[in-house]
Design brief:
The protein folds into three domains: 92 residues, no CATH class; 145 residues; 293 residues, no CATH class. 30% of the residues lie in helices and 25% in strands. Keywords: Membrane, Transmembrane, Transmembrane helix. This is DUF8094 domain-containing protein.
Length: 605
């Protein structure tokens, strides 16, 4: 009976193992489903719509080929179409009826007659989408490219070669399928255990059978038989010759199931072999980025305009700017710095480069700290130009100053440029602002909703530096913690005048700087305002005959003169950052930070 049970156990084990293995082989469902499309119109760009990316749940594995070089990037759908502008492109969308990807050639110029004027400027703008600040992530390869993303609704993918040659022709989008076999593991392991049980039962049955064949005790003796002659004794057989083969057979019989069980158990360790208590994925795409698609954030609700950039997107942009700036400051590369700076921030650095070229001992402009962003305040907009403010703060504030950057993007195909790079005051407290996922509205320069219109803040503060307490604007600005008044105010100007000889006279005036007035709203209904002011210092001869020599190396480097009887005019650029409270508030306007630098020195006509 034991042998019957052993045979049944072996048969059941074989069936369980075979069925478990079959679930992972011949009965295994596909691991993914995919749709393909072919671009044949020769367009320089192709766009995979969000409807095609989220046609099925799960991450999207995109494979692109059919060109010597392949470029793939993803971003907000509105940003992708804005970057393409009036150029033709192939639109790849999901057709729910046929369950396929359809390709349509789109000519934006045909539906936007007003784009003719923009096309006149198109040659000056880049045609290669690589490196654009609009993309959340970009990839490039030669021949073909495969990448896996996890993007939500509102995201599209742009595909190109180099922006001039036709876009890659072969596009495939694949989504994962749940082909797990939760009973494969239990069946395989259970079958292995059943085989082991059958083997044990077989050994027990074999042992019982051998015991039943032994001679019985107390057997009655029969009549004695006559003695027979002795027969020659056969050759002695060693015990090892009898027991050796039996031991090897026994060990083999034990080793086989052990190896079988070990192999089957190890093969069933994968998660897809076992039942899972995790909830099944829903039918909507997740907004959480995968490791290969970092930086994806869900768009803001439809009734609120999305912020100009996402935080991961801005981190990448600022990281590129910090790296470029460090290299340009080291090599005094004016062409390189001009690709990421504009306005007063560019003026100060270009002048500094010129001065340091003539005098290498002159201190460089304050470097941008390679530090985390402690504040991110993008403009809430879907148009251009776009403005973003961020603060870079190092852990070692004693040696690396905290910097506030105001970046501006003039058009979709232009990158963000630093318009203001302002060193914050040590005691500065930036007011509360909206989260980076929401953004802030841009306050008009002539707004009456704050205590002073943004366009008036710069001239009012410049008047305080010029006239001190005699300025009409003096009561509206907070003096405590304002180090700019100590360095650039009335007392400092008077010391410069006193240092001149009697044969020369010094005059101070001010004018609007080259930077645009930028004002972003704060949570207290106030505004953070960035402005630029030019302070002009004119030194002339009292009697018109005295010789004037530039008293500083920077002035000599920029003007190129060593002596003059006409006079010298120096222009200093001042970048200023303020917090302006709401209209009707009793709080004063607070200077959050400033940066000053000589940008021009010329001989008077």
């Amino acid at each position: 009976m034991r042998f019957v049970f052993a045979i049944l156990a072996f048969v059941l084990a074989a069936l369980m193992i075979a069925f478990g293995i079959a679930q992972r082989t011949i009965f295994l469902e596909p691991a993914s489903q995919s749709l393909s499309a072919t671009i044949g119109d020769g367009s320089p760009y192709a766009v995979i719509e969000g409807s095609a990316l989220t046609a099925f749940p799960g991450s999207q594995t995109i494979t692109v080929g059919g060109a010597d070089s392949v470029f793939v990037a993803y971003g907000r759908t509105s940003d992708v179409t804005s970057w393409i502008g009036s150029d033709d492109y192939a639109d790849v969308a999901f057709d729910a009826e046929s369950n396929t990807l359809g390709v349509t050639t789109v000519d934006p110029a045909a539906t936007e007659p007003s784009a003719d004027s923009a096309e006149a400027e198109a040659p000056a703008l880049p045609t290669n989408p690589a490196g654009s600040d609009l993309w959340l992530q970009e990839f490039s390869a030669e021949g073909s490219l495969t990448t896996t993303l996890t993007v939500p609704e509102g995201i599209s993918v742009i595909i190109a070669s180099d922006g001039t040659a036709p876009a890659p022709t072969d596009i495939t989008v694949a989504w994962p399928l749940d082909n797990s076999t939760p009973w494969a593991g239990p069946l395989i392991v259970g079958g292995a255990l059943m085989a082991l049980i059958g083997f044990v039962v077989y050994l027990l049955g074999l042992l019982h059978f051998r015991r039943s064949r032994r001679p019985r005790r107390n057997v009655p003796r029969g009549p004695r038989m006559p003695k027979l002659p002795r027969v020659p004794r056969p050759k002695t057989i060693k015990a090892s010759e009898i027991t050796g083969p039996r031991r090897s057979i026994g060990r083999s019989m034990i080793a086989v199931p052990l190896v079988l069980v070990s192999g089957l158990v190890l093969s069933g360790c994968s998660p897809e072999f076992w039942p899972s208590s995790a909830p099944e994925p829903s039918g909507t795409a997740t907004a959480t980025p995968s490791a290969t698609a970092e930086g994806t954030e869900a768009p803001a609700p439809a009734e609120v305009k999305a912020p100009a950039v996402t935080t991961p997107q801005l981190e990448r942009i600022v990281g590129d700017i910090v790296t470029l700036t460090a290299a340009a400051d080291e090599s005094l590369d004016a062409d390189s710095i001009a690709t990421r700076f504009t306005g007063p921030a560019l003026e100060q650095r270009l002048a500094n480069y010129k001065i340091r070229t003539a005098d290498s001992s002159f201190a460089p402009t304050t470097a941008l700290p390679d530090s985390p962003m402690t504040l991110t305040l993008p403009q809430q907009t879907d148009t251009w130009p776009r403005v973003v403010m961020t603060v870079l703060q190092s852990d070692d504030e004693s040696t690396v100053p905290t910097m506030a950057l105001i970046l501006k993007q003039e058009s979709p195909r232009e990158n963000y440029l630093v318009e203001y790079a302002i060193q914050l005051e040590a005691s500065a407290k930036v007011p509360g602002v909206a989260p980076a996922t929401i953004g802030a509205s841009l306050v008009p320069p002539d707004s009456k909703l704050i205590s002073m219109a943004p366009e008036a803040v710069g001239p009012a503060y410049a008047d305080i530096l010029l006239n001190g307490e005699a300025s009409a604007s003096f009561p509206q600005f907070q003096a405590e913690g304002d180090s700019a008044r100590t360095l650039l105010g009335v007392d400092s100007k008077q010391k410069q005048k006193d240092a001149l000889e009697d044969t020369a006279a010094m005059e101070f005036t001010n004018a609007a700087g080259s930077g645009d007035v930028v004002a972003l709203s704060t949570n207290d209904s106030g505004s953070i305002v960035a402005v630029s002011v030019n302070e002009i210092t004119t030194v002339t001869s009292v009697n018109g005959k005295a010789t004037i020599e530039p008293t500083s190396g920077p002035s000599k480097a920029l003007s190129g003169i060593t002596k003059t009887t006409k006079g010298i005019q120096n222009t200093y650029s001042e970048q200023l950052l303020f917090h302006v409270p709401a209209a009707g508030s009793t709080d004063k306007i607070v200077l959050l930070g400033f940066s000053q630098g000589l940008i021009s020195s010329v001989e008077l006509p």
